[in-house]
Design brief:
The N and C termini lie far apart (about 75 Å). The chain has two domains: about 30 residues; about 90 residues, no CATH class. With about 140 residues, it is mainly alpha-helical. It is built from seven helices and no strands. It is found in: Endomembrane system. Keywords: Membrane, Transmembrane, Transmembrane helix.
Length: about 140
C-alpha cells in the first residue's frame, strides 16, 4: 500500500475516532444549556432533512434549508472548526438565521414536528420565547 494512502487512511481513522469520542462526551453531558448546544447542529440536520421532505414546506424555504445544510457540511468555514467553542459558531449562526427565515413561511406545526430536540430551544431561536404555563385563575 502506498505511503500516502496509508497516511490518508490513518488520518480518516483518527478523525472518525475523534468524532465518536466527542459524540460520547456530548451524550454524557448533564441536562441543560450545554447539552442543548451540543445537540444543536445534529438537531438542525435532522430538522432540515425532515423539512425537505414535508409537502407543507414552500419551495423557497426548502432551498434555504438546503443552503444551510450545504453550509454546515462544507469544509470551508469563516471560523475554523478546530477552534474551541467558537469553531462551529458560523454554522450555528447560519442555521439559526435560516430557521428564522423558514419559520416565516413554514407552518409552525411542521417546524416543531421536524425539530427532534428541546422545543424551548427552537422557540428561543425563533424569537418566540419559552412557553409559560398558565397561572392560577387563567382559563
Amino acid at each position: 500500500m502506498p505511503g500516502w494512502l496509508q497516511a490518508g487512511l490513518i488520518a480518516v481513522g483518527v478523525l472518525v475516532l475523534t468524532w465518536l469520542v466527542l459524540m460520547l462526551l456530548a451524550w454524557r453531558l448533564p441536562p441543560g444549556l450545554a447539552k442543548d448546544l451540543a445537540g444543536f447542529l445534529p438537531d438542525c440536520v435532522t430538522t432540515a432533512r425532515r423539512l425537505r421532505r414535508d409537502p407543507r414546506v414552500p419551495r423557497r424555504a426548502r432551498v434555504a434549508v438546503l443552503v444551510a445544510m450545504l453550509w454546515v457540511l462544507s469544509p470551508i468555514d469563516l471560523i475554523p472548526e478546530f477552534l474551541p467553542v467558537i469553531g462551529p459558531l458560523d454554522d450555528v449562526v447560519v442555521v439559526a438565521l435560516v430557521l428564522r427565515y423558514a419559520a416565516r413561511t413554514v407552518p409552525r406545526e411542521a417546524l416543531f414536528e421536524a425539530w427532534p430536540g428541546n422545543p424551548d430551544l427552537l422557540r428561543r431561536i425563533l424569537g418566540l420565547g419559552p412557553v409559560t404555563p398558565p397561572g392560577p385563575g387563567s382559563s
